[in-house]
């Protein structure tokens, strides 16, 4: 092996070896008084922070799990491990113990916590990207597009560096429709729909779905309509990606383009 190549490989491998990661688990993201007043909130409204140690000003990805607003638990997608970014992964309260808009309010509280505390973990409040899969993608969209939820925590939603919903509802979520007595096959667009909150000045957006023939309940088509409406209102940084060969469970192949989108917007 040529000497210069050996030195390059050694320096690269040494650089990677210097980065270690830490995981802080089950951090409450509501204040003490809120936890005292609601046992389910105290049990459920916690997050984990996974971060590269001894760093500063790093990108943070807030991840909301899927599960139809009825199930699921916080976790870190494999593709986000050891990527030089901090990951905040969130539990939120679930149907039927709560109903809308509690899910969205919890998501906003977790994002607000991230803005207020991520510096303690080496992150930058100017580099927070919000994402999630399915129901989690829906929550990411709602928190970033309807500014009222974060406004309650004195956070401007436009300070989010980017929104990356993976196969998330763009119409009103089917569990919320069920709570309203509306069939899952009856689409509606009301204030609980990301489509209702399309605006030109929203954060940069990457919309990712599975293949339109493999996705669930017309998911590709509603996301494509969201993309088109952002174009109509003149949003200058919105992308739509369809993952050919994959259906609704397309998280793993979506992580590399997610990271590409993130890195392109902080360089």
Model description:
Keywords: Hydrolase, Signal. This is Alpha/beta hydrolase. Residues 1-17 form the signal peptide. Residues 47-213 form the BD-FAE-like domain. This protein is α/β, with parallel strands linked by helices and 267 residues long. The chain has a single domain, classed as 3-Layer(aba) Sandwich (Rossmann fold). It has nine helices and eight strands. It has helices spanning 3-17, 32-37, 39-44, 102-117, 135-145, 148-151, 174-179, 219-233, 251-264; strands at residues 21-28, 46-52, 58-64, 86-90, 123-133, 162-166, 205-210, 238-243. It has an eight-stranded mixed β-sheet with strand order 1-2-4-3-5-6-7-8, with helices on both faces. α8 (219-233) links the parallel β7 (205-210) and β8. α4 (102-117) crosses α5.
* Quantity of strands, as a count: 8
Helix content: 25-40%
CATH topology descriptor: Rossmann fold
| Rg, nearest Å | 19 Å
What is the annotated CATH architecture?
Answer: 3-Layer(aba) Sandwich
Elements, N to C (H/E): HEHHEEEHEHHEHEHEH
Given the helix and strand composition, which structural class is it? alpha/beta
Low-confidence stretches: 1-16
Strand order within the widest beta sheet: 1-2-4-3-5-6-7-8
Distance between the termini: 33 Å
Report the total helices. Answer: 9
| CATH homologous superfamily descriptor | Alpha/Beta hydrolase fold, catalytic domain
CATH class, named Alpha Beta
Largest sheet: 8 strands, mixed
Overall average residue pLDDT:
94
Instruction: Quote the beta fraction.
Output: 15-25%
Overall, the morphology is globular
**Integer count of domains:** 1
